[in-house]
Amino acid sequence: MLVGNPHRLFLPDLGRMRGGRARFRGLRLLHTHLRQEPLTRDDLADLTLLRLDYVAAITVKEDGLPGRIHGSHLLPGVEGPEPYRLEEFDGPYETGGDFLARIVALEEEFSRKVSVQRVEGDRGKAVCVVCAGRSQEAEEGLLELRELCRTAGVAVVGTESQVRPRPDPRWLVGRGKLEEIVTGAMQRGADLLVMGSDLTPAQAKSIANFTDLKVIDRTQLILDIFARRAHSRDGKLQVELAQLRYRLPRLVHEDTGLSRLAGGIGGQGPGETKLEIDRRRSRERIRRLEKEIERLSARRGVRRGLRERSNLPVVAIVGYTNAGKSTLHNALTRSQVLVEDKLFATLDPTSRRLRFPREREVILIDTVGFIRNLPPELARAFRATLEELQYADLLLHLLDGSDSRMEEQREAVEKILVDLDLQTVPRIVLLNKIDRIPPAQVSALAQRLGAVPISAAQKIGFDELLRQAEMLLFARHDSRMSSRQEPGKTIDPSGA
């Protein structure tokens, strides 16, 4: 029995007791309303968020005897606008029927409807949540988040957005909006909330304590994709390093039993807590990974030296993720790099030789795709991979002309190139996927962007691409080689 006040009743933490998403809690909330009022918003929030069997409020008459009863129970499926049904009874003896049998039948129907939902994805069902300052930013964020979920193998069963000047410091979205999101997620049978913004440790903890659903943010989702896509040792180490750096400040045990002193009863001192041990091990692992990545970077430096001694220019393909970089690399070099219509299909850089019509060869590198607001942990971890771009003689900046967000993607890639101090490297802008765009629009876009229109899938526009690449590349490369061979000779940087 719990005692509250006339305004609020505080429920204890129920933990994970009977917490399956297709089951009720096995608990019923029966309380009094002294002012004859119906169920409050807090009552209905407790019903939906805690998945209680039933909530009932017994009103009290002027003579002190029980009056009308206001009750509610959850509805299976998503048929109605609200996930519950409101009921009223004249008194405590007017409810009628076998209450326990009714609740068991409701739970069975609830479980059955959740289990028969058919969605694409084998790694759970998610509701995507975006909080942004403008409605357009929210729409774009939801589109990207859906693509990231599809790439990760997570089925998106719903999307929610909120437009507000700045995120809530505790909940990201407002508390009322969060209640609505969690309620909708329960209706749809979701087991995961994917937040479109990076959560602070405090936000992650608050939202996780608010709901039984698993909560991850955009960075965690990208890290999970990278962990599944990385195949080389270098890529796997970099992903693990990024994951450890991200998780270290968020390393908090929810189970209080795990945070007890490791020394045990009778120990001669408190020793380290389980949390402190985990943090220390994470820091040690981070240091070992950093040293291993430095060794692999040194090996790449040796390979670069061999390439330079062979006098082969280096061309790197850069662009937003899923712009068609691997398709272009395969088409130009007749390779078999993995190609999928998903974000970050390939993470490990691939180098192949490309022969020009004039019997001259270059090294063509396919790099990892860029993305807007690249998480800092990923930017630091993959800087060793992207350092290959520092030695490129030419960059091929690939744009997806069929994507409505092409301009934003182009600006995101340009910003990353500036952050990597690559703005001075010569580049050719390529407008890809022109086979999906009306011809008149292709000409206008190419002229405005100063781009070469191509289709990597259909192998269209390659002649002009190779002509411009050869003209820019070998003039600059020959100038650099002459400068190295004749130190006293002054070379015009333009290659004239």
Structural key phrases:
elongated; 17% strand; 496 residues; six-stranded mixed β-sheet; disordered C terminus; Rossmann fold
Give your account of this protein's structure.
By secondary structure, the chain is of the alpha/beta class. The protein has four domains: 28-115, no CATH class; 125-225, 3-Layer(aba) Sandwich (Rossmann fold); 230-258 and 273-308; 311-485, 3-Layer(aba) Sandwich (Rossmann fold), CATH 3.40.50.300. Helix content is 40%, strand content 17%. It contains 14 helices and 14 strands. The chain has helices at 41-50, 99-115, 135-152, 175-187, 201-210, 218-229, 233-247, 274-309, 325-333, 376-381, 383-386, 406-419, 439-449, 462-485, and strands at 28-33, 54-60, 66-74, 84-89, 125-132, 155-163, 192-195, 214-217, 314-319, 350-355, 361-366, 394-400, 427-432, 452-453. It has a six-stranded mixed β-sheet with strand order 10-11-9-12-13-14, with helices on both faces. A four-stranded mixed β-sheet has the order 1-2-3-4, covered by helices on one side. Strands 6-5-7-8 form a four-stranded parallel β-sheet, with helices on both faces. Helix 6 runs antiparallel to helix 7 (233-247). The N and C termini lie far apart (89 Å).
